Amino acid sequence: MKLKFLSFLAGSMVVLSACNNSKKCDTIPCPYECEDGVCICPPGQSGTLCEDIWAKHYVGVWTDEDALSWRDKIIIKSSTTDLSVLLFDDFWDAKNVVAKLTSKTTFKFDENQKLPDGYTLVSGEGTLNDLATKLTGSYDIKYERNGETRTIQFEFQKN
Question: Taking the complete model, does pTM exceed 0.85, yes or no?
């Protein structure tokens, strides 16, 4: 009899605990999901109420001050359908080169993207500094005609 009572008591505590956890979310206006009183943000967002859209820190015109890189200017846009996706224009004369945000300050290019003039963006990644004013990183580019692959370092300043 004691065993049945203890089992009943333990089961009741689990139910009450679950009710208390769900009530934590009743007062929080999360735009998405809430768990134990904390908003669960989708990829590309963070903050108490998912209010920080990561892509906004990247959007704009970026220039290579040293002009030693393959390009002296790129334009970064955010995707209209996925807040965790960046689109690079004027990247090796290509439009909409795709990169995915892996955190608020890091991104990775989608692999094996075809670029003009027989080039392929094999892979790459970058980092945004804390002030959101500098992008640094590297990528591998392959020239299809001879199969040569080069790693290129980049550093861009936001205008």
Answer: no
Q: What confidence tens digit (pLDDT) does each residue in 108-145 have?
A: 999 999 999 999 999 999 999 999 999 999 999 999 99
3-class SS of residue 17: helix
Residue pair 139/69 in contact by the 8 Å Cβ criterion: no
Distance of CA 80 to the CA centre of its chain: 14
Residues 52-76: tens digit of each pLDDT: 999 999 999 999 865 444 567 899 9
- What would the DSSP string read from start to end of 21-78? HHHHTTT---SSEEETTEEEPPTTEESTTS-EEGGGGT-EEEE-TT--SS-SEEEEEE
Q: CA torsion angle for 101, 102, 108, 110 (degrees, to 10)?
A: -70
